[in-house]
Amino acid sequence: MNRRPLPFFSNGCRIDADLHLPEDGDGPWPVVIACSGYQGLKVIHPERFARTLGPRGYAVLAFDYRGFGLSEGERGRLAPQDWVEDVRAAVDRVEVEPGLNPERIGLLGWGLGGGCVVAEASDDPRVRAVASLNCISDGTRSTRAMHDEDSWNSLLTRVAADRGRRAKLGRSEITSPWDIVRLDLDTRTDGYVQDELYKAPGFGSGVTLESADLLLRFSPETMVERLAGRPLLIVHGDRNELHEPVEAQGLYDRAKEPKQLVYLEGSGHTEWMYDDHPTFQRVVGVLDEFFQSAFTRLLTEVAGAMVAGAVSWFRTSRTDVPRHTGLMSPDIPD
């Protein structure tokens, strides 16, 4: 693939981003914005999707969320509400970039990013299709499921105390990211994180307790119905012990058609995320079919609207023109 920098700004923060383009053809390309999960680094899963979707004819934008990687922003602040704004700014950027098709913009989100793309698209009709993979659809429910009773109560106590700290001192306490997203109860994901994700520079850096407070208030499933008929794909491991399948089901149950839920049999959260893994290759195929169908559906709707508009204009124009039924006989005086 061809890759070039495409930075953009979100609420005044410069966001580091790369645009990956297919090697063959001239465009304009349909574009997929690939959004990372917890810790928000483009070099992990977003670039993996870029490597595999590019040969199938998609431009892919990969970026670091604010405060992570090479992007500007407060270090340690991991706020999904802020990340939603970063995704929106990414849409702003690709919409005006030459060589990309602004009518064929799709979002792809992983983990926490799977919730962020739903939240962004719920109020952004420019997004034509949304794919949410191993998502968080309710922050409180998902985080509670990662903890035992003691660690959950400890987290809530610390979050409550930190609110007062922020109010008095203006700063939140920095803590380990795994105090919030607990990995040790999911051995497959924990092993993958240790073996693979820590290879990325900056991965595992500390986060604020305010981040936990904001995560617990983040609930994309309450927003998903506002996708208003745009296609939604949900893919989830049916043995996912980090973000349990109820996250996918909760999102699906509240979404309106068209929607699709695909469970990956026997799969957990992330142990299969390798370019050549059969499960990952299956997911890429599902994504390709989904985005192709969504963008084709859009073209069909546009063509149908154009035909309907032409027919309406023709009928209106006919009623505005006087109808002549034949020659009128001249008046003959008596």
Arrangement of strands in the largest sheet: 1-4-6-5-7-8-11-12
Arithmetic mean pLDDT: 92
Low-confidence stretches: 323-334
Give the full name of the CATH homologous superfamily of one domain.
Alpha/Beta hydrolase fold, catalytic domain
The SSE string, one letter per element, is: EEEEEHEHEHEHHEHEHEHEH
Q: Estimate percent helicity.
A: 25-40%
CATH class of one domain: Alpha Beta
Report the span from N to C terminus.
Answer: 91 Å
Class by SSE composition: alpha/beta
Please provide the count of β strands: 12
What CATH calls the topology of one domain is: Rossmann fold
Brief overview:
This protein has a domain at 2-139 and 219-302: Alpha/Beta hydrolase fold, catalytic domain (Rossmann fold, 3-Layer(aba) Sandwich).
What layout of secondary structure does this protein have?
Blueprint: E1 2-5, E2 8-10, E3 13-15, E4 17-21, E5 29-35, H1 45-53, E6 59-63, H2 80-95, E7 100-110, H3 112-121, E8 127-133, H4 139-145, H5 149-169, E9 174-175, H6 187-195, E10 207-208, H7 209-216, E11 232-237, H8 245-254, E12 259-264, H9 278-320
Parallel strand pairs: 5-6, 5-7, 7-8, 8-11, 11-12
Antiparallel strand pairs: 1-4, 2-3, 4-6, 9-10
